[in-house]
Amino acid sequence: MTWRPEVFLQEPRKFPQKFFPPAQVQYVLKGCGSPVAVLFGRSEAGDAAAGNPEAHWKALGHDLFREPLVAPLQVHDVAVVPGRRIWALPQRPRADGVELDGEGIWGSLRFADCWPVVLAGPSPQPWVMVLHAGYRGAVACVLERNLRRILERWGPQSLNGLCVWIGPGIGPCCYTRASEDPLVQRGRALFPEAFAPATAGLVTVDIGHMLRRQCRAMGVPREAVCSAPWCTSCVEGLFYSYRRGDREARNFLVTAGPQKELFGDNLCRKRSKSRSEDGA
User: Fold this and answer.
1) What CA dihedral angle connects 158, 159, 165 and 169, to 10 degrees?
2) pTM of the prediction?
3) Which of 116, 134, 153, 272 has the most crowded CB, counting CB atoms within 10 A?
4) Torsion sign (Cα): 74, 117, 193, 235
5) d(CA 258, CA 104)
6) Range with the poorest average pLDDT among 60-64, 139-143, 247-251
7) Are strands 251-255 and 34-40 parallel, antiparallel or unpaired?
8) Which residues contact residue 13 at a Cβ distance below 8 angstroms, ignoring those fewer than 6 apart?
């Protein structure tokens, strides 16, 4: 069985209905045929929650006590909080990522043009990490730095079977910044191909390119990376977009980590097969 990342837009029938109302599932990230994470886009529940993760979680039919959710206060930086009950709602630690390596805890992040990133792997034990990557985070190398941290902790084996999902977020078709902005100058020094001249004094910015470059810098195979083809600002009716006027409501990314009936079983099978091949 090949372990590779895939994305599906509006395929609720392929998601376990016991976890979420099928009609509200819009964007499913899958690996080895099983769901890894779900992105909830524009919906009545999202409108009502107005960016509040606790309200959105409850609107999806979940109880914070029985199904604790880690939902950090995102600050456009690189810190990641572990998926532990101590950090679950109502706590809001300042971070731009959640790392999950056990059952019983859910992780979530919120987006409105910034880019979601999901990393998952079976080695040395099943794990999932979700990241929030806006322009500042991309320039700060949020993906590269956190993947490097995984490698430093678990060694090169953590790249075995690694999958990365990037997006959807705002594309270069809709995202410009002032060319003289110091942050733009810093970004151009690191990722020159991600910038192109627009109108006078402006450049277009390709955040997705920055994130894919960070994957390549860490040795992630091209076939292990799946980039969503949608721009959140262009695709009307599906996603919240800050630049299109959504000031409070957010796209809601949720993962259960390596839990049974999501993708934990397939991850564990992949891990067992790898260990058998290695003679472990």
Assistant:
1) 90
2) 0.88
3) 116
4) negative
5) 9
6) 60-64
7) antiparallel
8) 22
Q: Residues 127-152: what's their mean pLDDT?
A: 96
Query: Which own/partner pairs from 234-237 qualify as long-range (CB within 8 Å, at least 24 positions apart)?
Result: 234/171, 234/173, 234/174, 235/168, 237/42
In angstroms, how far is CA 263 from the centroid of its own chain?
Answer: 16
What six digits make up the tokens of 67? 């199904």
Q: Which residues pair with 231 in a beta bridge?
A: 169
Peptide bond connecting 72 to the previous residue in cis, omega within 30 degrees of 0: no
Contact (Cβ atoms closer than 8 angstroms) between residue 104 and residue 66: no
pLDDT digits (tens, 9 = 90+) for 1-39: 345 566 555 544 444 444 554 445 456 666 655 678 888
- Amino acid (1-letter code) at residue 233: S
Is residue 34 within a helix (H) or strand (E), and if so which, with residue range? strand 34-40
Confidence of residue 74 (pLDDT cuts 50, 70, 90): very high
List Cα–Cα distances, 169 to 60, 211, 279, in angstroms. 23, 11, 42
Which tops the pLDDT comparison, 2 or 160? Answer: 160
Cis peptide upstream of residue 22 (ω within 30 degrees of 0): no
Question: How far, in Å, CA of 78 to CA of 186, rounded?
Answer: 16
List CB contacts of 279: < 8 A, sequence separation 6 or more.
Answer: none
Structural tokens at position 107: 């992780």
Helix residue ranges per DSSP H, the chain? 44-49, 53-59, 135-139, 142-154, 182-190, 207-217, 264-277
